[in-house]
Amino acid sequence: MSVNALFEDIFRGRGWAIVDADHPDNLRGLNNLILHSVDDISGEKNATSEIESLRRTMHLLTEDKINTIKSHSYVEASEILACAFPGTISGLSGNEVFLQRRAHMTLNVPAPPGGRENNRYLPSLSHFDSMSGISPYTVTLWVPIHDLDDDTGVWIIDQETSMEIMNAERRNGRVMGGDILAMNAPRMEKRVFARMTYGQGLVFSPFCLHGSVTNETERARICFNTRFQSRNLPLHLRTSDYFSCYDVPKAAVPAGITS
Ligand SMILES: [Fe+2]
Prior knowledge:
- This protein is of the alpha+beta class.
- It has one domain (3-247): Jelly Rolls.
- The chain has helices at residues 3-11, 28-42, 51-57, 63-71, 77-84, 86-93, 159-171, 178-181; strands at 16-20, 96-100, 104-108, 139-144, 155-156, 192-193, 200-204, 210-211, 221-230, 243-247.
- The strands form 2 sheets. Strands 1, 2, 3, 4, 7, 9 and 10 form a 7-stranded antiparallel β-sheet that branches. A 3-stranded antiparallel β-sheet has the order 6-5-8, with no helix packed on it.
- The model has no long low-confidence stretch (mean pLDDT 88).
- The site of fe (ii) ion has 3 residues, from loops.
């Protein structure tokens, strides 16, 4: 798929695509940020020196340690993502963009032995990102720091179906009513769970419904996501507190769009 085809797909077509990192080695920086955050909270060299073993043991951490990992600032993460996917960003939004100041780090942690009582296990409810004040021109880049071969990541619905689902609720006087939140609105079954190998990311428009489900596996899912848009297009409510200027290196071309 060409850059133009990706642009069409995101802004006028399905609304999402899985893309290859142009510089996948840069993603190691994200893995190191997570591993260092675990070192920080353990106060000693942590035995879980690799992401895979951390994923398998994260559910054993206490809630305050999970919260410490979640609340780490990860100030470098957004630029690391941009350096890994410059061709995708420039192909969708040009070389002069607004880039989210701080990437979000999201975890989907399995239940600890013996219980599921706490908020750790709440999935991310159905929503589309333009609900939260980002402009219609802002694109999300969602990147796991490991292979993602199960349903613990993000599910997504193409933007046309997403808007049909929302319009059906509006016609019924039920905008953001229980149907969508309960995941039983007509056509919600069209959701697709993103599957990726390490080094790939999901890009999607702010009009694609998406969310996550409870992690029933043995391993935590760890992801970073950031947002970007052209500096030549209008911002909405999210402005300088949320975005900063970023110039994509001019030579950037996308490595490939695989699905
Ligand atoms: Fe979202």
